[in-house]
Design a protein that fits this description.
It contains seven helices and three strands. The protein is mainly alpha-helical. The chain has a single domain, classed as Rhodopsin 7-helix transmembrane proteins (Rhopdopsin 7-helix transmembrane proteins), CATH 1.20.1070. The longest helix has about 45 residues.
C-alpha cells in the first residue's frame, strides 16, 4: 500500500496534534486540582490519568507510523505489519473505563455508586475487548461480527447512563444539571462516532485502501480528543459548578 505525501502528512500531523492536546490537557487538569476542593479532586485525577495514558500511547503510535513507511519517488510505501495499531486498543482498555468512573465520581452519588461504577467499567472494558479482533481482521465479515458483539456492551452502557444515572440529574445543583445532561450527550456522541469510523472499511469490501486507512486514523484522533480532553473539561466544569453551589450552604452551616 502506498500513500501520497498529503495522505501521510495528514495522519502524521493529526497524531502530533492529538499528542500535544493530551499533554496540554494533562497540565491543565493537574494545575486545576489546586482550584478544586478535596471532595471533587478524584474526578480530576482520573481525567489527568486518562489524558496521560492516551498521550503516551499516541506517542508510541506516532513513532510506529513514522517507522512503518519508506519514501520512494514521492510515495510513502507501508511496510506490511510494521504499523502497530494495537497501542490504541491498549489505551482504550485503560482509559474508557476511567471515563465512566469519573462521571460517577463527580456526581457523588450517595447510594449504589460502587455497583454502578463496576457495571459501567465492566461494560466499557468488554466493549473495547470485543472490538479489537474486528479491528485487526483482514476481512469485512470478521470485522462486522466483532463490531456487532462490541455493540452489545456499548448499548448497555448507554442504557445505564440514560436510566439509572439519568435519575441522579434531578438531585444535582441547578447550575450542574445542564452540564451533566450535556456530558452524557457528549459521551453518547463521541462513543457513537467510534463505530462509524470502525465501519469505514465496509465501504471497500476488497480491502483497506490508502483513503480508508487515513480516514480511520484521523477519525479516531478526532474521537479521542473529544472523548478525553473535551470530556475532561466538562468534568472539571461540573466539579466547579457543584462546589460553588455547595459553598453558600457550607457558609451558612459554619455561621450557625
Amino acid at each position: 500500500m502506498e500513500l501520497t505525501a498529503v495522505q501521510y502528512g495528514l495522519v502524521y500531523n493529526m497524531f502530533s496534534f492529538t499528542f500535544a492536546t493530551m499533554f496540554a490537557s494533562f497540565i491543565f487538569f493537574v494545575l486545576s486540582m489546586q482550584l478544586i476542593g478535596k471532595e471533587y479532586r478524584a474526578p480530576l485525577v482520573m481525567s489527568a490519568l486518562v489524558v496521560s495514558v492516551a498521550g503516551y500511547h499516541y506517542f508510541r503510535i506516532f513513532n510506529s507510523w513514522t517507522g512503518a513507511f519508506t519514501l520512494a519517488d514521492g510515495k510513502y510505501a507501508l511496510i506490511p505489519g510494521a504499523f502497530n495499531d494495537a497501542y490504541r486498543y491498549v489505551d482504550w482498555l485503560l482509559t474508557v473505563p476511567l471515563l465512566v468512573a469519573e462521571l460517577v465520581a463527580v456526581l457523588r452519588l450517595e447510594r449504589g455508586a460502587g455497583s454502578l461504577t463496576f457495571r459501567l467499567v465492566l461494560g466499557a472494558a468488554l466493549m473495547v475487548i470485543l472490538g479489537y479482533p474486528g479491528e485487526i481482521a483482514t476481512d469485512v465479515g470478521t470485522r462486522a461480527l466483532w463490531g456487532t458483539l462490541s455493540t452489545i456492551p456499548f448499548l448497555y452502557v448507554v442504557y445505564v447512563l440514560f436510566t439509572e444515572l439519568g435519575a441522579s440529574i434531578d438531585r444535582q445543583p441547578a447550575s450542574a444539571k445542564v452540564l451533566v445532561r450535556n456530558i452524557r450527550l457528549l459521551l453518547l456522541a463521541t462513543w457513537g462516532f467510534y463505530p462509524i469510523v470502525y465501519m469505514l472499511p465496509f465501504l471497500v469490501p476488497t480491502g483497506i485502501t490508502p483513503a480508508i486507512l487515513v480516514g480511520v486514523q484521523v477519525g479516531y484522533c478526532i474521537c479521542d480528543i473529544a472523548a478525553k480532553c473535551g470530556y475532561g473539561l466538562m468534568i472539571y466544569s461540573i466539579a466547579r459548578a457543584k462546589e460553588n453551589a455547595s459553598a453558600p450552604v457550607a457558609a451558612r452551616v459554619s455561621a450557625d
